[in-house]
Amino acid sequence: NTHPVTVLGLGAMGRALAHRFRTAGVATTVWNRTPGKDPELVAAGAVSAPTVTEAVRGGHLVIVVLLDHASVHQQLDPVATELRGKHLLNLTSTSPEQSRELAAWAAAHGIEFLDGGIMAVPSMIGAEGASILYSGSPTVFDTHRATLELLGAADYFGTDPGLAALWDFALLTTMYAMFGGFFQGAALLASADVPATDFAARATAWVTAMAHTLPAYARVIDTGAFTDEVFQDLTFTKSALDALRQAATDAGITAEPLSGLAALVDRQVAAGHGAAAFERTAAALRTPH
Ligand code: NDP
């Protein structure tokens, strides 16, 4: 038994969400700023609303999935009264502070607010591997849990509406660092005419094996015991990163993807922490030296 849903924004992601709802038989109203994005959705049984106001009237759960924070305010501010008493879910990628601001705006207008971070691309919605991180109103999460689970695994992180975005961004930070390292590795091999596809096969296995070491790194970060039982110290790490920098220079490529990490390591060694664990870098990000 699901409540009717409204999807505001029919970009690639909004269309994927609305399609999934219709496939599961959820009553769905859709709206997009530029008309003409919804013929397939209408054919699948969705109601096309000509205005945001009419779209909001159609759903109990209103999902906003627009470009950014500014576009969300641009569309929702004029319909705040219409939203009163409804459940609002923001799936637009907004920063933690922007999510908190939206939550405060919603609270001031009597709107129950849940924020979400989508850990999937549109083609993954409703399929294996998709997950969405939520935080904010437990009422919205609990009331619509079955509906939300149609999209992917649904995990609730707590009442702070900024937490889902914080988790989302922490995961994306990890992901982009991995891609940056992969690009630098591929450029290094390209200097010897090795195609990136050959590199990818081996890099996938290596990254997967290394990913399994994250919990051990995390334990050291959490205890802050950077000088007991050090696995690899900062002096060792500095020499490894110096060698990678030299190899990049020799191959005529830039080492920029790794340079931020190398600078953090250099700074700690210069400050006399060479014997401390590499994991100390996580603490060094929060306090200088
Ligand atoms: P698209 O670029 O495909 O679509 C953007 C949507 O935003 C369109 O519907 C567009 O409307 C609308 N829009 C932009 N500005 C405004 C505005 N001022 N007023 C009203 N509508 C506006 O993006 P996606 O659908 O892919 O992404 C939507 C959100 O989902 C983003 O915040 C994105 O970060 C997030 N997301 C996307 C993922 C992905 O893989 N695609 C993954 C995780 C999150 P119009 O057609 O009129 O231009």
TrEMBL record:
<dbReference type="InterPro" id="IPR036291">
    <property type="entry name" value="NAD(P)-bd_dom_sf"/>
</dbReference>
<dbReference type="GO" id="GO:0050661">
    <property type="term" value="F:NADP binding"/>
</dbReference>
<dbReference type="GO" id="GO:0031491">
    <property type="term" value="F:nucleosome binding"/>
</dbReference>
<feature type="domain" description="6-phosphogluconate dehydrogenase NADP-binding">
    <location>
        <begin position="5"/>
        <end position="153"/>
    </location>
</feature>
<dbReference type="GO" id="GO:0140673">
    <property type="term" value="P:transcription elongation-coupled chromatin remodeling"/>
</dbReference>
<keyword id="KW-0560">Oxidoreductase</keyword>
<comment type="similarity">
    <text>Belongs to the HIBADH-related family.</text>
</comment>
<dbReference type="Pfam" id="PF03446">
    <property type="entry name" value="NAD_binding_2"/>
</dbReference>
<feature type="domain" description="NADPH-dependent reductive aminase-like C-terminal">
    <location>
        <begin position="160"/>
        <end position="286"/>
    </location>
</feature>
<dbReference type="Pfam" id="PF21761">
    <property type="entry name" value="RedAm-like_C"/>
</dbReference>
<protein>
    <submittedName>
        <fullName>NAD(P)-dependent oxidoreductase</fullName>
    </submittedName>
</protein>
<dbReference type="InterPro" id="IPR006115">
    <property type="entry name" value="6PGDH_NADP-bd"/>
</dbReference>
<dbReference type="GO" id="GO:0000785">
    <property type="term" value="C:chromatin"/>
</dbReference>
<dbReference type="InterPro" id="IPR051265">
    <property type="entry name" value="HIBADH-related_NP60_sf"/>
</dbReference>
<dbReference type="GO" id="GO:0016491">
    <property type="term" value="F:oxidoreductase activity"/>
</dbReference>
<dbReference type="InterPro" id="IPR048666">
    <property type="entry name" value="RedAm-like_C"/>
</dbReference>
<dbReference type="InterPro" id="IPR015815">
    <property type="entry name" value="HIBADH-related"/>
</dbReference>
<dbReference type="GO" id="GO:0003677">
    <property type="term" value="F:DNA binding"/>
</dbReference>
<dbReference type="InterPro" id="IPR013328">
    <property type="entry name" value="6PGD_dom2"/>
</dbReference>
